[in-house]
Amino acid sequence: MHEAERYGDKxxxxxxxxxxDRLSGLADTFDPASRRNLLALGxxxxxxxxxxxxxTGTLSGWLASVASPGQVTAVDRDARFLGHLAxxxxxxxxxxxxxxxxxxxxxxxxxxxxxxxxxxxxxxxxRRMVSWLRPGGLLVVSDALAVGGETSPHEAYRRTITGYWxxxxxxxxxxxxxxxxxxxxxxxxxxxxxxxxxxxPVVGLDAGFDRFLALTLEQARDRMLAAGLPEAVxxxxxxxxxxxxxxxxxxxxxxxxxxxxxVS
Length: 264
Ligand SMILES: C[S@@+](CC[C@H](N)C(=O)[O-])C[C@H]1O[C@@H](n2cnc3c(N)ncnc32)[C@H](O)[C@@H]1O
Prior knowledge:
Layout: H1 19-40, E1 49-52, H2 58-66, E2 72-76, H3 83-87, E3 91-94, E4 107-113, H4 122-131, E5 133-146, H5 155-172, H6 182-188, E6 192-199, H7 207-226, H8 231-242, E7 251-259
Parallel strand pairs: 1-2, 1-4, 2-3, 4-5
Antiparallel strand pairs: 5-7, 6-7
Helix pairs in contact: 1-7, 5-7, 5-8, 7-8
C-alpha cells in the first residue's frame, strides 16, 4: 500500500540545504514568546522537561539553562540539528513520536511547538503526550493559527498563502486551524487550569519571520506550482515580500496549556 507523505519525508526534510536556516528563523521569532509563556506558567529549576519535535533545539537548550540540564530531553524524528544539546547536558532522542511503542518516560513539562499541526494523527499523539506527564505535570502545545494571509488585500500574496496552506494540507496533512480546538481537546483529556495565549508577528517587521516565510516558499515552490498556483503570482508575492514597506500577516502562534490532576 502507498504510504501517505509525512512532514519531513520530502517537504521540510532536515536534509534540505535551507532547513536549519528556515527553522532558526522560526525560533528567532517565537522563542521569546515561548520563554515568556513557560516562565509565566511557573517553569522551575527542579522540573524534568521533554521538548517534542525539537527542531534546531533552541528552546530545549534554553530549558536546559533554566531547569537542570540533566533533566531535559529533546526528541525529534531527525536529530541532526540537536548535537549542541549533548554538550549542555540534555538528552537527545531520535524517534518518531507517532510510533505507539515510543515511551520517553514521565515529565513535569511536555512541550511541543509547530509539530502537532503537521501530524495527521495529532489527536492520538496529544493523548499519548498527556500520558508522558507526571501527576500535576504541565502540557504546553504551540501551533500556527492562520491569520491574515488568506484575506490580504494584496492579490498575489493572498493567492500564494492560500495555495500554500492548501498544498501542505493535501500533501502532508497539516491543519492551519487545529490549534483553535486545543482548549476543548485539553479539557476533554481531563487537563485542569487550561489556558491559551497568542502571539502574532508581522511579516515585514520581524527579520526571523521574514526569513522563515521566504525559505518556506522557496522549499514549497515546486509543490505549489504543481498544485496550480501560476508562477507569475508566486513571483509577484515573493517580490512583495522583499519590499521594505510590506506589512502582512501569515500566522499567529497559539499556545495552549493544561495540567494533569494531582493524586489526592
Ligand atoms: C516546524 S518544526 C518545529 C521545530 C521546533 N519545535 C521549533 O518550534 O522551533 C517541526 C519539527 O517536528 C519534527 N517532527 C515532525 N514529525 C515528527 C515525528 N513524527 N516525530 C518526531 N518529530 C517530528 C520535525 O523533524 C521538525 O524538527
